[in-house]
Amino acid sequence: MKEYQPIEDYGIIGDLNSVALVSKRGSIDFMCFPDFDSPTVFAAMLDKEKGGYFNIHPLLEDINHKQLYLPETNVLLTRFLSEEGVAEITDFMPEEEMYGGKEIIRRVACIKGQMRFKVECCPRFNYARSAHSVEQVNDHQLIFRSEGDDQLVLRLKSSVPLQHRNGDGYAEFTLAAGGMADFLLEEVDVSSPGIADLRAFVEKSLFDTINYWKNWSAKCNYRGRWMEVVHRSALVLKLMTSYRYGSIVAAPTFGLPEELGGVRNWDYRYTWIRDASFTIYALINLGYKKEATAFMKWVEKQCDDIGEAGYLRLMYNLDGSLDLHETELNYLEGYKQSRPVRIGNGAYDQIQLDIYGELLDSVYLYDKYVQPISFRFWQNLSNQVDWVCQNWQRPDEGIWEVRGGKQQFLYSKLMCWVAIDRGLRIARNHSYPTPPHWQEVRDNIFYAIHNDYWDEELQAFVQYKGAKTVDAATLLMPLIRFISPTDPQWLSTLERIEEELVSDSMVYRYRPNEEVEGLTGGEGTFSMCTFWYVECLARAGQLDKATLFFEKMLGYANHVGLYAEQLGAKGEHLGNFPQAFTHLGLISAALSLDKELNKHSDKGTMV
Q1: What domain of life (predicted)?
Q2: Fewer Cβ in 10 A, N or C end of the chain?
Q3: Which regions of 487-571 does DSSP assign to beta strands (E)?
Q4: Annotated domain spans of the chain
């Protein structure tokens, strides 16, 4: 019987269409296929009995496991070490740009001694809702056909004999030192012939994939103190981008809980304007202009599609469509009994005013550092800025997508200010005309934030109008250049955030409040907020503290440098995995901390 592995026990591979999560024990326990937002084929992480998996493991009791990436690549090695021998699985997905995607390759090699392996390929199509049939083509090939609406057909090819029973594929084989076995799981495409020479294809695609990722990594312009972790985070963000559309998912998974046994289990396999915009900041800062351009083309299409100002949605499917209806898969028990498991996301039709600021900020950076935007794109964007000018005073659900009703959230007002400010800057850079009221409204928001959200008793900017609590989203105030990082009002706010939300070096996004959230239960510390906190400390000149907290946080990455959304009380990873927000926050914090450390180093200051 399979057991639930900790979320942090997984590495990921991907082809810029989707990803697969591979455990340290050699099992693929989560994969949506062939795209990020396709139904799952393997989902044992969400139901160990019903979900499906693709496991390759030694038939040994006493064995140690080690997992690592080949440096500067997304090619994953899972190593098995025992007294009988040493073996490893090389897992990768040839990427879309060169191979068209839709293939998983698993190469098993015995390095030393001798080892016997068992293979179990147990697909469960359409979120484990659809039955399937299996056909034995020959000793080395099985065909799995979904009988559901997805009509997905998969082919498993192997260099060792395969058999099947009860709809699943099996194999057992023994390898001595120097021996190899190859497995290819692919979508059957009637327009292209199958692969004739499996060994040659695996050999060529492995080296092509290694070279693809190494060449991509080499384009990164970061050469600072934390190169390895920054490059790994960049590689993770790249894995979450769609080559076909240019859109970026918030995370490639759904249903992984923010609290074990709790109800906060969401689907993140969509493109949030906010998350994707933040991702573009990070990629532009690292020199990745191609990805920024692809995303901007996707955004420009959305601005053409929305019809009228104010209809920019906070999230979209990869292709820009809006079919995001939230459904509960009540037949799945959920990760460690965390139910319900949801697909779709009911927050898609919420009003979240902050998305306009995040989008305009990313366009501003793109226009300044990558490529000037077109006048037509500017016209669409200026309509959005006009809408913000007219609607910034509306209550909304805010960045954390609360489900307890709208509030006048500080963060939303901040980002409305950003939307207008960056709109004015873009127009100024191009000498585009702007309506006279833009600057007036921007300044009105500035004064409203200082007057309505400053609490004299707390000596802090509060979460929403009338609140007596702070919010970690406020950490962006100096990062978006709304306030100086050394302004006394900001420093006292930072102290209040430290008192209320910081646990050791880790940061809660806010203190749970059922009335505001509309949800029961709690959650872990929010890793992106921890990196925002580090960046605020660095910009405020608290470099020793910032460096210590940053490097402590690096110690919470999993064994291959990946982060989920949150960290639990025991340092366990919680929420969807890996999380773009966390990795882009790491990149931004590393860049800011490097910059501040270099400033002080140049001045001869000891830090």
Answers
A1: Bacteria
A2: N
A3: 502-503, 506-507, 525-526, 566-567
A4: 7-189, 232-602
